[in-house]
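Thread: "does anyone have the structure for this chain?"

Original post by V.I.:
We have the sequence but no experimental structure in hand. Need at least a predicted one for the grant figures.
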Amino acid sequence: LKEYRNFIENSADLLRDMRLGISENNSVFFQILPFLVLGIPELLENSEFLNLIVSSADSSQIYKMTCQLQLGRYRLFGPDPLKIIRSSFEMETFEQVFLWNLLVAEFSRNFEEFSAVIP
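Reply from O.Q.:
Generated one for you, tokens below.
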């Protein structure tokens, strides 16, 4: 991923590539998602990226991500989850449900951290 990070110029290029990856092979994209968020941490600060994930995933992919988040294998919400939560108010209802499932799964291991995010 280091070579890829050097190749991309800005976050718009990164999101374009993520959209292309999802449109080409959705299931492969979700299999490599943990490696993407671990290798490219700036993705965690991008609400459009999370919107892309929840709008493209099906329920089985959300379930797998939920399990991995509960186990602490990776994170999706980065240092400022409140920014992503605010942007979720513009999403469709179904996408909001997926996003909140992922949010609860990520913070299920540490309630204090969750309560600090949600005032």
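V.I.: this helps a lot. The longest helix spans residues 93-107.
O.Q.: and The chain has a mean pLDDT of 87.
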